[in-house]
């Protein structure tokens, strides 16, 4: 993933998979690079105080926030934690994040995908801070993958789009 930070114009680059992964940052338009982490981020969203990274690694699931001041990472949402879905106890949520969307309200819309060899439910969540809610689950059949690889919007009418779906924000 390559992304330009709209607040600093820094260039962020995440590369690799498995044990060969790296997050780099350039503060001079790509002339020099600094290693920030060896996490496996595949989605990004920016705000004034932090950068939100969607993860694609077992054991490092969910959304992490990189604090601009401290330059530290903190997990801000992990759908495997049952406190976010007490009405669905026993449901296995999780998965990789390939894209996410930050709204003007500061909330994130985050789709979690499922590979064919995984047994969790693919889902889409919305929230910020400690407040997260399940927007929808995707058909998650055993032995079949399900992914939302891109998400866009909202448009002028408040619609958010991803392949095969659209949702109107209230």
Number of strands: 14
What are the secondary-structure elements, in order, as H or E? EEEEEEEEEEEEEE
* Count of DSSP-assigned helices: 0
Q: Major beta sheet, specifics?
A: 4 strands, antiparallel
What characteristic shape results from the CA principal axes? globular
Instruction: Give the CA-CA distance, first to last residue.
Output: 30 Å
Mean pLDDT: 90
How would you name the oligomeric state of the polypeptide chains in this document?
single chain
Radius of gyration over all CA atoms, rounded: 16 Å
Instruction: Report the sheet-strand fraction.
Output: 35-45%
List low-pLDDT spans: none
How do the strands of the widest beta sheet line up side by side?
A: 1-2-3-4
Helix/strand class: mainly beta
Overview of the structural elements:
A hairpin with a 2-residue loop joins strand 11 and strand 12. The chain is globular and about 45 Å long. It is built from no helices and 14 strands. The chain has strands at 2-4, 11-17, 20-26, 34-37, 41-46, 50-55, 63-67, 73-77, 101-102, 108-112, 123-128, 131-137, 159-162, 165-168. Helices cover 0% and strands 42% of the residues. The model has no long low-confidence stretch (mean pLDDT 90). The strands form 4 sheets. A 4-stranded antiparallel β-sheet has the order 1-2-3-4, with no helix packed on it. The chain is mainly beta and 170 residues long.
Tags for this model:
single chain; 170 residues; mainly beta; 4-stranded antiparallel β-sheet; 14 strands; 0% helix; globular
Task: Give the helices and strands, then pairings.
Layout (H helix, E strand, L loop, with lengths): L1 E3 L6 E7 L2 E7 L7 E4 L3 E6 L3 E6 L7 E5 L5 E5 L23 E2 L5 E5 L10 E6 L2 E7 L21 E4 L2 E4 L2
């Amino acid at each position: 993933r390559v992304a330009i930070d709209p607040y600093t114009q820094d260039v962020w680059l995440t590369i690799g998979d498995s044990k060969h992964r790296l997050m780099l940052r350039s503060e001079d338009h790509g002339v020099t690079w600094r290693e920030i982490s060896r996490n496996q981020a595949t989605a990004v969203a920016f705000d004034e105080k932090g950068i939100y990274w969607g993860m694609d690694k077992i054991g490092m699931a969910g959304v992490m926030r990189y604090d601009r001041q401290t330059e530290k990472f903190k997990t801000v949402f992990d759908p495997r934690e049952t406190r976010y879905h007490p009405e669905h106890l026993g449901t296995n949520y999780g998965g990789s994040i390939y894209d996410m969307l930050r709204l003007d309200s500061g909330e994130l819309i985050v789709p979690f995908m499922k590979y064919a060899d995984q047994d969790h439910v693919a889902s889409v969540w919305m929230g910020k801070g400690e407040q997260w809610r399940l927007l929808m689950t995707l058909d998650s059949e055993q032995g079949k993958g399900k992914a939302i690889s891109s998400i866009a919007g909202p448009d002028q009418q408040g619609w958010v789009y991803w392949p095969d779906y659209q949702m109107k924000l209230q």
